[in-house]
Design brief:
The protein is α+β, with helices and mostly antiparallel strands. The protein contains three helices and four strands, in the order H-H-H-E-E-E-E. It has a four-stranded mixed sheet, with no helix packed on it. A hairpin with a 2-residue loop joins strand 3 and strand 4.
């Protein structure tokens, strides 16, 4: 049985309306960002972002993300934030 994410414009229309207005106000910045539902991490994997951080790398044409305890990372560039806290670091990617 597949569970639905329970998030997105259908479940949080006012939030997405406000985001769309903000993105329209800053189109150049908006082109660099996307909104992601975190239910896989929070509900599926039970990640505690206060204790853990995702570390992502490109490998064989895939993006691989592992979750490790904070303080054990190599200090990659932050590529995902939640309330001004880094929740995912991205290692530098190889030249394509």
């Amino acid at each position: 049985m597949k569970a639905k994410a329970g998030c997105g414009p259908q479940s949080d229309p006012e939030f997405f309306d406000a985001l769309n207005e903000l993105f329209a106000q800053y189109p150049e910045a908006a082109a660099k960002y996307a909104i992601k539902c975190m239910s896989m991490e929070l509900d599926g994997l039970k990640i505690d972002f206060g204790r853990q951080v995702g570390v992502s790398r490109i490998e064989d044409g895939r993006i691989i993300t592992e979750f490790v305890d904070r303080g054990t990372t190599r200090g990659g560039n932050c590529c995902a934030w939640k309330h001004d806290e880094c929740i995912q670091e991205c290692e530098p990617w190889p030249e394509m």
